[in-house]
Amino acid sequence: MEITVNKFDLLKELTATQGVVERKTTIPILSNFLFEAAGDKLSITATDLDLSLRTSCPARVKKEGSCTIPARKLYDYVKLLPDGDITIKLLENHWVNIRSGRSNTKMVGMARSNFPSLPVFPTTGMVKIPSLALRTMIGKTIFAISNEESRYTLNGALLVLKPESLVMVSTDGHRLAHIERQGGKYEISGEMKTLVPKKAMSELYSLLQSTDAEEIEFAKDESTLFFRIGGRLLTSRQLTGQFPNYEAVLPKDNDKSVTIRTDEFMQAILRVAQFADERSQAIKVKLEKDELRISSSSTETGESEDSIVTAYTGETVIIGFNSQYLIEFLKAAGTDDVRLEFKNAQSAGQLRPETGEEFRYRYVVMPMRI
Fold first, then answer.
1. Contact indicator for 46, 13 with CB cutoff of 8 Å
2. Three-state SS across the chain?
3. How far apart are alpha carbons 85 and 82 in whole angstroms?
4. Distance between CA 184 and CA 186 in Å, rounded?
5. What does the pLDDT read at residue 176?
6. In b/e form, how buried is each residue of 181-204, taking b as 16+ CB within 10 angstroms?
7. How high does pLDDT run on average in the chain?
8. How wide is the angle at C-alpha 279 spanned by C-alphas 324 and 320, nearest 5°?
9. Are 338 and 304 in contact (CB under 8 A)?
10. Is the pLDDT of residue 106 over 70?
11. Residue 135: which of 354, 359, 365, 363 has the closest Cα?
12. Which of 66-75, 97-106, 344-353, 354-363 shows the lowest mean pLDDT across its residues?
């Protein structure tokens, strides 16, 4: 294999794959890129067996072929090279020669045959999803995914595709984020439910941030999810198992509500949370006539209270929440105002941003005893 590529083109694709490359692995080949040169392009593949990304950049291919190169070392080295062309040539014993200007380096590669084979994009059942909508939905649900490995089915978000709507739901058992995009036409019959792992969502989110493609192509087979974003293909192992019945958790009769400015609410919580118990992060929210009071206390650090003027005329409600859960929602809300809905101190609270017509976004938080 012998090729010449532009540094800018190569670095752009190497950067896109960094999140997929396995850093600490017991399988050495997984910390390598697979390079395949054919026609007028260089294909680059990275995988950690659960997740893989295949991308490509233009190349002048003098000799077709393939090789594997240590991913992190190559990325760090290419970043330091001067702008211009880079020549990559496969030598004997899987060594790879990299030349650019007056720089000349040889890297120790591994046999191409060791690199795992990747699943192929299915020929049927592909659905097109608007890129911007999917990016918005991931941003508003990813933070509520559970990090506890024992809660396997909660280690991802549920994506529900219907012919005229798109839903994404995540929960860690203490809070739940639910967003629905109404309108749109998706070429499916009935309903398609998919559990997308957190790491795949995170990679997908960063790929969606750097694409010009208006739509992505989504497909799945029995074990794998496929997301084609422009010229890049992300594949992920599917999560299996039963996602909780989230519709049963969505509050139906929260009859007390108040609308608050998002930034004002967040700043007040951030101040008060400084004095919350470190383990529980608990703060007390008290809704009374024309005022919302937020308070916390801890034997180690002291106590704090903040209040916000509101247009509330209902009966007084006092409810405890994990401050971190509220802050994460307020950062993701993306609107000037949010609406808090309560029933009583024992029932889940619900927050909704005052948004437009395209998305319906709601966030349910279980109360805490204080």
1. no
2. CEEEEEHHHHHHHHHHHCCCCCCCCCCHHHHEEEEEEECCEEEEEEECCCEEEEEEEECEEEECEEEEEEHHHHHHHHHHCCCCEEEEEECHHHEEEEEECCEEEEEECECHHHCCCCCCCCCCCCEEEEHHHHHHHHHCCHHHCCCCCCCHHHCEEEEEEECCEEEEEEECCCEEEEEEEECCCCCCCCCEEEEEEHHHHHHHHHHHHCCCCCEEEEEECCCEEEEEECCEEEEEECCCCCCCCHHHCCCCCCCEEEEEEHHHHHHHHHHHHCCCCCCCCEEEEEEECCEEEEEEEECCCEEEEEEEECCCCCCCEEEEEEHHHHHHHHHHHCCCEEEEEECCCCCCEEEEECCCCCEEEEEEECCECC
3. 9
4. 7
5. 97
6. beeeebeeeeebebbbbbbbbebb
7. 94
8. 55
9. no
10. yes
11. 359
12. 354-363
Q: Determine the pLDDT at residue 306.
A: 98
CB atoms within 10 A of CB 223: 10
Residue 152 has pLDDT above 90, yes or no: no
172 Cβ partners below 8 Å, 6+ apart?
144, 145, 146, 147, 148, 151, 154
Q: Distance of CA 60 to CAs 63, 82, 87, Å? A: 9, 19, 9
Residues 146 and 168: their CA atoms lie apart, in Å, by 15
pLDDT at 23 over 80: no
One-letter amino acid at 207 equals L
Cα diameter, the chain = 80
Q: Which residue has the tokens 């101040």?
A: 271
Give the burial class of 280: count Cβ atoms within 10 A of its Cβ; 0-12 exposed, 13-18 middle, 19 or more buried. middle
Residue 58 CB contacts under 8 Å (≥ 6 apart), including other chains: 5, 6, 9, 40, 41, 42
Q: Is the pLDDT of residue 356 over 80?
A: no
Q: What is the dihedral of CA 218, 20, 149, 158, to 10 degrees?
A: -20
**Can you say how many angstroms the Cα of residue 209 is from the centroid of all Cα atoms in its chain?**
11
